[in-house]
Design brief:
By secondary structure, the chain is mainly alpha-helical. The protein is built from six helices and no strands.
């Protein structure tokens, strides 16, 4: 088991995709933890954000956190992992476009 961890190649598209999907969730959780910890997470908190019209803005800010691992992987010449992070970011951008232009649901 320890040998598999030592031989892990971090220049992997799916590893970058996993980091690109996980990083905005972590940023979203940290936002809740430091600012709105008194609201139950995640259902009430998401409802609160949607009610205040802040949901798409918070998703945008959370997606920006993908810049940090992207630049780290680019500077270490791990281009496959950086491509995975970019793919996850594009998926988030498509979700943001959906929220901004097509989501007319009542809260």
């Amino acid at each position: 088991m320890l040998e598999r961890i030592k031989n892990f190649k971090s220049d992997n598209f799916f590893f970058g995709l996993l980091i690109g999907i996980f990083t905005p969730f972590l940023a979203f959780f940290m936002y809740w933890l430091f600012k709105y910890y008194y609201i139950s997470f995640p259902s009430r908190f998401i409802w609160f954000l949607k009610l205040g019209g802040m949901w798409d803005g918070i998703v945008k800010l959370s997606t920006l956190t993908n810049l940090l691992p992207f630049y780290i992987f680019i500077n270490k010449n791990k281009n496959k992992a950086a491509a995975g992070i970019m793919t996850a970011t594009v998926m988030y951008v498509l979700y943001i476009v959906y929220l901004m232009y097509f989501d007319n649901s009542e809260y």
